[in-house]
Design a protein that fits this description.
heterodimer, A: Alpha-Beta Plaits, three-stranded antiparallel sheet, 5 helices, B: alpha+beta, binds iron/sulfur cluster
Amino acid sequence: MTFNRFVKTVFLTEIVKGMALTLKTFFSPPVTRQYPKEKRPAAPGFRGLHALARDFQTGEARCVGCGLCAAVCPSKCIYIYTADSLDHKKIVERYEIEVLRCVFCGLCVEACPYSAVALTEHYEYSDYSRDAFYMTKEKLLANYDKYMGPEKDREYYRKFWHPTSDDFGTPANQAVFRGKQ
Amino acid sequence: MDKGAAELQTRELTINMGPQHPATHGVLRLVLDLDGETVVKCTPYIGYLHRGVEKLAENRTYLSALPLTDRLDYISAMANNQGYCLAVERLFGVEAPERAKYIRTMVAEMSRISSHILWLGTHALDIGAMTVFLYAFREREWLLDLFEMLCGARLTTSYARIGGVRNDVSQEFIDSLYRFTGEFPRRIEEYETLIDQNRIWLKRTKGIGVIEADEAVNWGLSGPTLRGSGVSYDVRKHAPYDAYDKVEFDVPIGKRGDVYDRYRCRMEEMRQSNRIIRQCIEKLPVGPVMAPDAPKISLPPKDNVLKTMESMIHHFVLITKGPMAAPDGEIYSCTEVPKGELGFYFVSDGSGRPYRMRVRAPSFVHASVIPRLCEGSLVADVIANIGTVDIVLGECDR
Ligand code: SF4
Ligand code: SF4
């Protein structure tokens, strides 16, 4: 046994070092977030509860019932029932999302050609019954009013969800390394 | 021996560990036959998390099947997305543009760090070091916040796309990530201060779960579990994909192939990942993030869908039928995910959906080696052995 090893064994150096580190951390500011009281802001592309956007002119749902969102959905949890109206227009009779089966991939938002379906930033929903998570068209429109509508300055058509042709070309001000700050 | 003593002969005791045992990291169930403190036989039972991902993919278009891959190894979704997209890209013969390659490399390495951090925290916690767990999660939080900033989700990212990535990175993201890479080596040192030389840690890990190099190869191990035994095999080095041939990094290997060496390998790997991320940021080129011929394979840009007829038609066909002009044939493509070698094997019949998707999941292979590591060892080392092969049951059961 070398001298160093002897000192280490007897004086528990590695344990003392570890303890010193925990002691130092003990006096540093805590990183814990006091969740229900203190909420973290959601990121711009956050995928929360669904909503159906209202047309700002008519106040009706923008959705035209093309069915793309239902086709792209990996968990097949969007149900759309359309019918012909008397003046031969396609109307969306029912638009339903089974939120409990949704995996929040956001593909429906990406697929929708009318930007009619959106994901809000609301994530605190829990209930005692499954029915509460079966979102009908009315509930989805209500979600929009509640979580997206009132803030008029917030675009529901978020660029984040709808990459434009800029992203296929070379945008002028792309993020690059700016040197060590 | 008189009659009384013969009656006192002990039999082997069969106990059930899991599937809800916190140290089995998911829903692994082990049936252990014990002779006193020694494990005589260990039988893993898997399949509690089986969701039929491979079968599900057959009914989805190539685009819609992407979110399924998030849920294979759910703690490193970015790396899975990358592996999946790369395989499909190779099948279709498209290549992501430079910038997208660098971004994908960067986020895959971020997920490697976050996966290894989680592994370190839980592995140390299983063996009895609580503090490391708390410290590790502090850094993991930073990375997950960055993921959220990038794509809106912390774990199930669905970020990579066939032919590139979904959206460009923001300047804020780049700056924050660069700060992280500056800070992170110090944090690794902190973890090491806590356990690297700690005598309890050494006693619990050195010489435990030894597997020799040739045997490790025969078991089909990969990733740090293989490299801990001294085999230098890394897909990133041997068949470079994305930007791995443009960055410098070393492949750390161990010597003895025990729990401690695999731990050292993963710690070093985190340093190397950190290095790769730094280089990726420094070299990040400007340019598009989607391949120019991707509109035939991935969704066209949104403004074009609203304005031009052609894009609108592409958009509809892509979503309802899947990518056009899928070639007939099959392809196997593998990437190095944090757990090991993740392979995707596609058979295509020319339609927009995979005819067959097979996932070569490292965790599945690694779960098979657990009996080999546990048999003959003490029952207390079983959790050290489960931890050291680093399995995730989502990927193992698929
Ligand atoms: S977020 Fe994904 S899983 Fe949920 S409804 Fe939309 S497409 Fe379906
Ligand atoms: S894709 Fe949009 S417009 Fe089409 S049915 Fe879905 S929500 Fe309605």
